[in-house]
Amino acid sequence: MIQRATGLGEEVYQAIFARLMALRVPPGARITVDGLAREFNVSQTPVREALSRLESEGLVIKTHLVGYSAAPQISHRRFTELYELRLLLEPDAAAKAAATMTDTVLQELTEAAGMMSRAGGADERARYAQFAREDAAFHDKVLTVAGNEMIRETLAHQHTHFHIFRLMFHSRVTEEALGEHAAILDAFARRDPDEAARAMRAHIERSRDRLLPAFN
Ligand SMILES: [Zn+2]
After folding, report:
1. What distance in angstroms lies between residue 9's CA and the mean position of ligand 1's atoms?
2. Which of 13, 19, 27, 153 has the smallest set of CB atoms within 10 Å of its CB?
3. pLDDT (tens digit per residue) in 156-199
4. How far is ligand 1, taken at its centre, from the CA of residue 201, in Å?
């Protein structure tokens, strides 16, 4: 149920986002504005706004005369290419970030690292959607700190994390990734570029290996 309190548009967006990320709306499934509006008991306007925002994030597709549908699942080939790209760019970015780390930035990265998701409360699928967003923010922030805006934009435009997390729902994905993020933060805290690169590489490789079974 959507509460009619503050930020109705944002709540509608978050509700649809969570369904897409946790595969409650499977890849390729039709999404009707009317159906969602009735289900959430809101007008069509916030639903349309949410869907166009999700379209800009690559999570839904709008087809002329057909309407909206959930984006198809990333292909195995695209997945492999994406991880090759991440492994080329992100360990190096982590090393650069470690070399210029300040206490303020370290604090910001720690807050972005998704550790809050470990706390209970929301159901497991809601936590999964939440972690997908925090993971995206954490990796984006490391790239920001590393200081190459073109690299950051290149990865941001792939909406990497949203596509990866939609491959399958598994609580292990969140639990293990949190531990790996902690190792990266630890290297940042020690201002150790080599260790930061190693921890980031290990995290990305493990993330890839955790999700590979989705293609079997
Ligand atoms: Zn991560």
Report:
1. 28
2. 153
3. 888 877 888 888 777 677 788 889 999 999 999 999 999 999 99
4. 10
User: How far apart are the CA of 6 and the centre of ligand 1, in A?
Assistant: 31
CA within 13 Å, CB half, 194: 0
Task: State the distance from the centre of ligand 1 to the C-alpha of 51, rounded, in angstroms.
Answer: 26
Q: Is 62 helix (H, G, I), strand (E, B) or coil?
A: strand
Q: How does pLDDT run across 68-77, given as a tens digit for each residue?
A: 999 988 899 9
CA 158 to centroid of ligand 1, rounded, Å? 15
Distance CA 22, CA 25 (A): 8
Cβ(203)–Cβ(177) below 8 Å: yes
Higher pLDDT, 134 or 88: 88
Q: Do 178 and 115 meet the contact criterion of CB atoms below 8 Å apart?
A: yes
Q: Enter the pTM of the model.
A: 0.84
Class of domain 76-215 (CATH, top level): mainly alpha
Ramachandran angles phi, psi of 146, nearest 5°:
-65, -30
CATH fold match for the domains 8-70 and 76-215: no
- Among the ranges given (16-30, 125-139, 189-203), the one the predictor scored with the smallest mean pLDDT: 125-139
Q: How confident is the model over 85-114, as pLDDT tens digits?
A: 999 999 999 999 999 999 999 999 998 886
Question: What's the chain's length in residues?
Answer: 216
> What are the domain boundaries of the chain?
8-70, 76-215
